[in-house]
Design goal:
The complex is a heterodimer of chains A (320) and B (232).
Chain A lengths: L4 H20 L6 H17 L5 H16 L13 H11 L4 H18 L3 E2 L2 E2 L3 H24 L3 H15 L5 H15 L1 H12 L5 H19 L2 H21 L3 H16 L6 H10 L7 H24 L6
Antiparallel strand pairs in A: 1-2
Helix pairs in contact in A: 1-2, 1-7, 2-3, 5-6, 7-13, 9-11, 10-11, 10-12, 10-14, 11-12, 12-14
Chain B lengths: L6 H11 L4 H15 L4 H14 L9 H10 L2 H10 L6 H17 L8 H18 L7 H23 L6 H12 L6 H6 L2 H16 L1 H18 L1
The chains are: A mainly alpha (320), B mainly alpha (232).
Chain lengths: 320, 232
C-alpha cells in the first residue's frame, strides 16, 4: 500500500469498465481476448498491492502475449452525432474550456500546496506522490465541473474515458512496460557494456572526438533506453567524466547540462519513449504510429548538432 | 559484467525495425536480457513484477480521459474550432508558435503540467490547428492532416523538453547535481539549470522556424496532391 493506492483504484475502475464494455461488444472480433487484456490490467491496478511479484510478472507476460498476437483491437465506436455536438458547443460555449483548464491549474496549485503538508518539518509526500495526487485531484475536480456544465451522468463520463482508452489501445501500457525493461537492463549491466564499447572506439586525444562521443552516445543510448535519465549516469560515468573532465579539463556543470539535453534529442527520435511519441500518435488517431517521431526528427538532429557546437564552445573555458 | 547483456538491446532494435507488436518486443527483450545475464526465470519474472508495480504511476494519465471524453461528447473540439476561427489573423504557424512559446516558458517556470497530449494537445491544439489550416482550403487531405497532428504533438514535446531543464528544482537538474556530487564534483543546481539556456534558445529558434513555415508547406503539399488527383 502507498499514498498512491487510491489513485490506482480509480485507474483500475476505468480499466474495468473498458473490460466490461469490450466483453459485451458484439462488433469486436476479438472481444474475449480484449476483455481479458483490460480485465487483467484492471486487476493489476486494483489488487496489485496484494499480489506476489512473481504473479504480477507472469500476468505482465500474459498481457504482452495477448497484445502481441492481435488480441487487443479497437471496439465498435459509439460516437455522438456531430450535429448534436455542434449544438452543444453552441449552447455551452466557452464554459466547455473551464474543466480542461482546471486540470493543470489544480495540479500546479496542488503540487505547491503539498509542500506545506509537513510532519516534524519533513514533507508528508514525496515530490512524485504530490504531483500524482494533485493531478488526480485536478481530474476529479474537473470531472465534477464538466458534469455540472454538461448535465450528464458520471457513468457517461467514465464510459467516454474508456472509449478514448480503447482508441489508444495496448500502446497505453507501453510506457510502463518500458520502465520495467529499464529496470532489467540496469540489473543486467547493459549500461556498463555500452560505455565500455564507446570508450574503446573513440580517439581519446582529440577534444572534439570526445565531445562528439559523449553527445552522440547520450542521444543513442537514450534512444535505446527511451529515457535520458537512464542514459545520463551511464554515459557520464563511462565517457563524460573520465574523458572530458578527467583527460581534457572540461567543466562538469555545463557538460552535464548540455549532455542531458543531447539525450532529450534522442528522446524525440525513439519509439522507446512511448509516452511522448507512440501514445500521442494513438491518442490523435494517426495511422502511422511513428508519425510523431518523423515530425520531430529534423528538429532533433539540428538541435543535436547545436548541442555539440555549444558544448565544444563552452566546456573547455577553464581548461588550458 | 558481460557483453551478452546487450542481447536485449538487439531484440529491441530488431523488433522495432520489423514493426512487431511493441509490447511483445519489449517484454521479450526483458526476458532475453535476464536470461543472457544468467538470472533464472523466476527471478526475472519477480523483477518484472516488482518494477511493474513500482511504475504504475505511468498510467495515471488515464484519469484525465473521462473529463476529456465527456467534454468532447459535448462539443469541446467544435468549440475550440469556433473560438480559434474568431481570431481571423491567426495562421496555423502562428498558433503553433504561440503554443510552443507558452509551453516552453511555463516549463521553465516549473509549470510542466500546463499542457500534455491528453490534457491540451488532443482536445484543444489539434482542433484549433486543423480549423486554421482548413480556412480557405476546405477539408485537409489525409496525409496533410496526419502530418499536422504529428507536428502538434511534436511541438508539445519540444516545448516541454527544452523548457523544463532550465527550471532549477526539476528532477533532471537534481539528478545531475547528485550524480556529479557522488563523483567528487560539487556544483550548484543553478549552474546546471542556467547551462540549459543556450540549448533552450536554440530549440525555440530551430523548431519555431519549422513551425512558422508550416502554412507554406501545407499549401504546397495540398497543391501537389490536387494536381496529382486532377491528372489521375
Amino acid at each position: 500500500m502507498s499514498a498512491l493506492s487510491p489513485i490506482y483504484l480509480l485507474v483500475g475502475g476505468v480499466l474495468a469498465l473498458l473490460a466490461l464494455r469490450t466483453a459485451r461488444d458484439a462488433g469486436n472480433p476479438r472481444r474475449a481476448a480484449g476483455a481479458l487484456f483490460w480485465g487483467v490490467l484492471a486487476a493489476l491496478f486494483v489488487a496489485g498491492d496484494f499480489m506476489s511479484p512473481l504473479l504480477v510478472g507472469v500476468l505482465v507476460v500474459v498481457l504482452a502475449l495477448l497484445a502481441g498476437f492481435g488480441g487487443v483491437v479497437r471496439g465498435t465506436r459509439v460516437e455522438r452525432d456531430p450535429i448534436e455536438r455542434a449544438d452543444s458547443a453552441q449552447r455551452l460555449g466557452n464554459r466547455l474550456f473551464l474543466p480542461v483548464l482546471l486540470i493543470p491549474a489544480a495540479t500546479v496549485a496542488g503540487v505547491y500546496g503539498a509542500k506545506f503538508l509537513q510532519v516534524d518539518g519533513k514533507p508528508l509526500l514525496s515530490g512524485q506522490e504530490a504531483t500524482l495526487l494533485a493531478l488526480s485531484l485536478g481530474c476529479l475536480l474537473a470531472l465534477v465541473a464538466a458534469l455540472r456544465a454538461t448535465r450528464e451522468r458520471p457513468l457517461v463520463a467514465i464510459g467516454a474515458g474508456a472509449g478514448l482508452l480503447d482508441a489508444i489501445g495496448w500502446a497505453a501500457l507501453l510506457p510502463l512496460v518500458l520502465a520495467v525493461l529499464g529496470g532489467l537492463f540496469a540489473a543486467a549491466g547493459v549500461g556498463d557494456a555500452v560505455a565500455k564499447l564507446v570508450s574503446v572506439v573513440v580517439p581519446t586525444d582529440s577534444r572534439f572526438a570526445c565531445v562528439l562521443a559523449y553527445c552522440l552516445g547520450m542521444a543513442a543510448f537514450t534512444m535505446i533506453m527511451g529515457n535520458a535519465f537512464a542514459a545520463f549516469p551511464v554515459m557520464t560515468g563511462g565517457v563524460g567524466l573520465p574523458l572530458l573532465v578527467g583527460l581534457h579539463g572540461a567543466e562538469p556543470a555545463s557538460m552535464a547540462a548540455i549532455g542531458m539535453l543531447c539525450g532529450y534529442c534522442g528522446t524525440l527520435m525513439t519509439p522507446m519513449a512511448a509516452n511522448f511519441n507512440i501514445v500521442p500518435a494513438a491518442l490523435l488517431e494517426l495511422r502511422d504510429s511513428h508519425a510523431v517521431i518523423k515530425a520531430q526528427v529534423p528538429t532533433a538532429l539540428m538541435l543535436l548538432a547545436a548541442n555539440v557546437a555549444i558544448m565544444h564552445a563552452v566546456v573547455f573555458r577553464h581548461a588550458g | 559484467m558481460n557483453e551478452w547483456a546487450l542481447v536485449g538491446v538487439g531484440v529491441v532494435v530488431l523488433g522495432f525495425a520489423l514493426r512487431l507488436n511493441a509490447l511483445l518486443v519489449v517484454v521479450a527483450a526483458g526476458l532475453a536480457t535476464g536470461i543472457a545475464a544468467g538470472m533464472d526465470l523466476q527471478r526475472i519474472l519477480e523483477l518484472t513484477g516488482e518494477a511493474f508495480l513500482k511504475n504504475r504511476f505511468l498510467m495515471v494519465f488515464v484519469l484525465t480521459l473521462p473529463v476529456i471524453g465527456l467534454l468532447e461528447r459535448n462539443g469541446l473540439r467544435e468549440q475550440a474550432e469556433r473560438w480559434v476561427l474568431g481570431l481571423t489573423r491567426l495562421s496555423t504557424g502562428r498558433l503553433l508558435l504561440a503554443y510552443q512559446a507558452l509551453r516552453q516558458v511555463a516549463a521553465m517556470l516549473g509549470l510542466t503540467h500546463l499542457g500534455g497530449h491528453p490534457q491540451t494537445v488532443r482536445p484543444l491544439l489539434v482542433p484549433m490547428a486543423e480549423a486554421t489550416a482548413m480556412r480557405g482550403v476546405g477539408p485537409l487531405p489525409e496525409r496533410v492532416r496526419e502530418r499536422l497532428r504529428a507536428m502538434c504533438a511534436g511541438t508539445d514535446n519540444v516545448g516541454l523538453f527544452f523548457g523544463e531543464d532550465v527550471f532549477v528544482a526539476f528532477g533532471a537538474v537534481l539528478l545531475m547535481q547528485s550524480f556529479l556530487a557522488q563523483h567528487g564534483h560539487a556544483v550548484e543546481p543553478l549552474a546546471i539549470a542556467l547551462w540549459g539556456l543556450p540549448t533552450a534558445i536554440a530549440a525555440f529558434l530551430v523548431h519555431g522556424a519549422r513551425v512558422a513555415r508550416i502554412d507554406h508547406r501545407m499549401a504546397a503539399e495540398i497543391e501537389r496532391i490536387r494536381t496529382q488527383a486532377a491528372r489521375a
